[in-house]
Design a protein that fits this description.
The chain is α/β, with parallel strands linked by helices and about 250 residues long. About 35% of the residues lie in helices and about 20% in strands. The radius of gyration is 17 Å and the shape is globular.
């Protein structure tokens, strides 16, 4: 299995398939290459369309290193991992598709790495515009994910969204301490850098996603589209309409 080393010498697993224009895939919280991209059918669809797919398990997930110190996830470390993989594979230009936390990382990467030509952000909606950190009510659900991961008894988690992520983590036997550390780590909220995004962006969100509608995000940018499909937060990835929108967007900017 191929691995690459990031800036702090973390070892991260990656998958590299196909030829053609490069699409870098960044999965979501408690996900991995298999869960988010292979099972959803997105990776195979991109290969069928003639793209080269590069996906990796983010630190704390899957087959990659899982540090338990929040400092290992702080600041721009997650986007730095993506840049390190592009360096390792000598990629000059790429599209980036991210889901949920991966979508946030993709947007941030576009402001820091000139190799990003366009971004597809799945599972982001208007609620991200009010999420500025653990001190806000809007941010409380995300930041309490750390507590949900550390809870001794999952039955004590009463908030459905938090319970869902904990059940996912338990089902795949994830390293919950690493996931909690990731959620504890201070990172720059999307609302603070969104206006710095200058590449074309496609936002795709399910109509039943508690993240809210994607249109307010697209309205903040000069070159952005918003698409709402059927499905909930995780379900948007497998929606035929979502995958069709992704291919059309990439083809338009290839």
């Amino acid at each position: 299995m191929p691995y690459f080393r990031s800036g702090d010498d973390a070892s991260l697993y990656y998958d590299d398939q196909g030829d053609g224009a490069v699409v870098l895939l960044l999965h979501g919280f408690v996900g991995d290459v298999n869960i988010d991209w292979i099972r959803s059918g997105i990776l195979d669809r991109l290969l069928d369309e003639g793209y080269r797919t590069i996906a990796y398990d983010a630190r704390g997930h899957g087959l990659s290193d899982k540090p338990h110190d929040p400092s290992a996830y702080a600041g721009d470390i997650l986007s730095g991992d993506a840049s390190a993989l592009l360096d390792t594979l000598e990629i000059e230009r790429c599209f980036v598709i991210g889901f949920s936390l991966g979508a946030q990382t993709a947007l941030r990467l576009s402001t820091l790495d000139a190799r990003v030509r366009a971004v597809v952000a799945l599972g982001l909606g208007e609620t991200i515009l009010t999420r500025v950190g653990p001190s806000t009510d809007e941010g409380a659900a995300v930041w309490s994910l750390a507590a949900a991961m550390r809870a001794d008894d999952p039955d004590t988690i009463t908030q459905p969204g938090l319970r869902h992520y904990r059940e996912m983590a338990d089902a795949i036997r994830a390293d919950r301490q690493a996931l909690a550390a990731l959620m504890d780590a201070p990172r720059i909220p999307v609302v603070e850098f969104l206006d710095e995004v200058k590449v074309p962006v496609l936002f795709v969100t399910g109509s039943d996603d508690p993240a809210g509608a994607p249109n307010p995000l697209a309205a903040r940018l000069e070159d952005a589209l918003a698409v709402t499909t059927a499905g909930d937060h995780a379900g948007v990835r497998a929606q035929a309409a979502a995958q069709e929108a992704i291919v059309e967007f990439l083809d338009a900017h290839a």
